[in-house]
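Chain A, query sequence.
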Amino acid sequence: MITLIIIGITCVVSFMAFNNARLMNDLILWPPAITRNREYHRLVTYGLIHADGSHLLFNMITLFFFGRVMEGLYTASLGTLGFALFYIVALVVSILPTYLKNRRNPNYRSLGASGAVSAVLFSYILIAPWSRIVVLVLPMPAIIYAVLYVAYSVYMDRRGGGNVNHSAHLWGAAIGVIFTLLIRPDVLPHFLGQLAQPRF
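Chain A, predicted structure.
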């Protein structure tokens, strides 16, 4: 249920912001607004808005399929709002390095739930590394996708340029792994055991 609520809120706010430039500007991660005006809510609200429909659709489909699985784990470990807590922490932590790097850059802006969605996806990969996921139209084991995703994100982050925040993707993936292992240390031996039994 929490996953569906997050998706619903994100879709509603994103669609509203598509046609409302003022709302978009009030919610987007714009570092000077945080540094000068202490608008700390932007560290979360940037994840409620998206650049366009395809950006929103990709993030929400990913969240729908993997969030519902991980919600059960977080609810069992942290209570009813456990998954919501995880998601919000992932939004904030995944964007913090970007914010700190650009805190005095008035030309920088960032938006989208990709960092938090990466956290959800990578927490899922810890649980089921050999499960088959479909990337675009190509099926592959989740752990193979994880390796390719990290390698690509590292390369693109170092290369720079473009409009995609690869740093947020990487930090989101990291917080997904770390947060999950903190609340469920037993997941690590499970993950290692699964890796030792590859299934293609």
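The two ends are 32 Å apart (CA to CA). The first strand starts at residue 132 and ends at 135.
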